[in-house]
């Protein structure tokens, strides 16, 4: 169990994160986004488990067509089809046509079996890709909420213009806000990884890797802002000691 992600633990972590954001920034849009992430996480748990289970309808048809192929092959082996009569009558052309028709039928059924065997995988892949797109959208929404949170504007007390975004946070509050964004991005990547664990499909794994690369890149960009605030705090502390 320690080698696999546990969906319930991820949901619990997001639930606690949502409470932390709501308590510190109750009126913020970030709290609403985290609520949506929590709802998506709960659905992801159910979706990932559903995708991991076999599709009974597909497997029923798979077994049915397999049984038909086995039956037809058994008919030939047992001599139930009139191959012997055709050969005794000397109708070589009819015999050849019958054999050709039989093998064409066999190829058709084998192709049908192969199609059914791939049908379930394709269906799961498409559903997983749709769910992953939803997580990718959430990551971009989180990035939009931190986009105007510029620490340099607060530290340097830059002059505001009529179109300047509201900057009412202290350095500590801004640092916590940005930290919450990085946590949300990291958890979004973990939700995506759940699908990669349930479906051993190259396209799904690539899509999961793309989301993890996206969330890591966005998180790194946010951490650069946090480091600016941290560097300023350290500089202020050193200045205080020197004075």
Structural write-up:
This protein is mainly alpha-helical and 243 residues long. The chain has a domain at 7-53 and 121-159 and 166-237: Glutathione S-transferase Yfyf (Class Pi), Chain A, domain 2, CATH 1.20.1050. It has eight helices and no strands. The mean pLDDT is 79.
Largest sheet: none
* Rg (CA only): 31 Å
Mean pLDDT: 79
What's the tally of helices? 8
- Find the CATH topology of the domain at 7-53 and 121-159 and 166-237: Glutathione S-transferase Yfyf (Class Pi), Chain A, domain 2
**In percent terms, what proportion of residues is strand?**
under 5%
Name the shape in a single word.
elongated
Secondary structure class reads mainly alpha
Q: Which terms would index this structure?
A:
single chain, 243 residues, mainly alpha, 8 helices
Secondary-structure topology with pairs:
Layout: H1 7-24, H2 29-52, H3 56-78, H4 83-88, H5 92-146, H6 151-155, H7 171-198, H8 202-242
Helix pairs in contact: 1-2, 1-7, 2-5, 2-7, 3-5, 5-7, 5-8, 7-8
Structure in a nutshell:
With 243 residues, the protein is mainly alpha-helical. The chain is built from eight helices and no strands.
């Amino acid at each position: 169990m320690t080698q696999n992600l546990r969906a319930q633990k991820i949901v619990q972590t997001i639930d606690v994160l949502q409470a932390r954001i709501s308590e510190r920034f109750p009126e913020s849009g970030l709290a609403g986004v985290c609520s949506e992430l929590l709802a998506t996480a709960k659905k992801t748990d159910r979706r990932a488990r559903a995708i991991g289970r076999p599709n009974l309808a597909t497997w029923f048809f798979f077994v049915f067509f397999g049984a038909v192929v086995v039956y037809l092959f058994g008919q030939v082996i047992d001599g139930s089809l009139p191959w012997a009569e055709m050969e005794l009558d000397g109708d070589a052309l009819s015999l050849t046509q019958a054999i050709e028709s039989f093998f064409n039928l066999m190829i058709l059924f084998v192709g049908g079996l192969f199609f059914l065997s791939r049908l379930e995988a394709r269906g799961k892949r498409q559903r997983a890709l749709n769910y992953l797109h939803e997580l990718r959208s959430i990551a971009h929404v989180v990035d939009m909420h931190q986009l105007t949170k510029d620490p340099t504007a607060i530290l340097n007390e830059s002059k505001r213009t009529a179109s300047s975004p509201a900057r009412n946070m202290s350095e500590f509050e801004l640092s916590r806000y940005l930290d919450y964004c990085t946590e949300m991005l990291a958890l979004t990547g973990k939700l995506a990884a759940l699908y990669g664990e349930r479906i051993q499909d190259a396209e799904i794994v690539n899509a999961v890797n793309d989301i993890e690369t996206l969330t890591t890149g966005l998180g790194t960009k946010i951490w650069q802002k946090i480091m600016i605030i941290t560097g300023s705090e350290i500089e202020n502390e050193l200045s205080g000691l020197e004075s």
